[in-house]
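YM 10:42: MBL fold metallo-hydrolase sequence, as discussed on the call
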Amino acid sequence: MLIRSFPAGAFGTNCYAVAPGRGQECVVVDPGMDAVEPLARMLAEDGLKPVAVVLTHGHLDHTFSVLPVCEGYDIPAYLHPSDNGMLSDPARWHGPALAPLITGVRLPDPSEVRRLDDGAVLSLAGVELTVRHAPGHTQGSVVFALDLGSEFDDAPGLLAGDVLFAGSVGRVDLPGGSWEAMLTSLREVVLPLDDATVVLPGHGPATTIGRERATNPYLAEAGAAAPKGRGL
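YM 10:58: structure's back
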């Protein structure tokens, strides 16, 4: 599997391209602020042709460039329906810090965005992405599980969006966020994963589930909050 990425815009949102190999079709993940030109350069370096955009959630720093990317390559976008409101009414969901970005931004009509459902397997560009709904950062946050292949020693992978970072997790203080929901997602979606799983987060460097299980205080809190009588 070929994974390419770059940090987009002022928020350094990781935009990924995932493909079976060089010169092939690919899936674009989270084209954020000012991502159109650097994405085009990154794709050209490996001769990649995008067939879809998949979004881990609806925040502007992950969706800012989705419409021009989709229009430019004539490809669809995918988003969990619980975050459709962030496309139709971004001012309501993003808080005052992102308010200056909202004026003039062009986002897709939610009716034109394909839905991501929990447990669905997307087969796109020779890549299989398993969708897991993981609310907490937003109501519609998802992560994508995938096999990374020989380039990553056949380790499993997780495109984690803003659910899990190296040493931290996504914020829950914006509209639609919930710490209780985040703890449940960490406990039920993240903690059961194999320690060898390579985490490709929405911000910052890659990590592994094993490293985070051993060092991330929020994962420890999620594990400690497990209901009695239930395993991880």
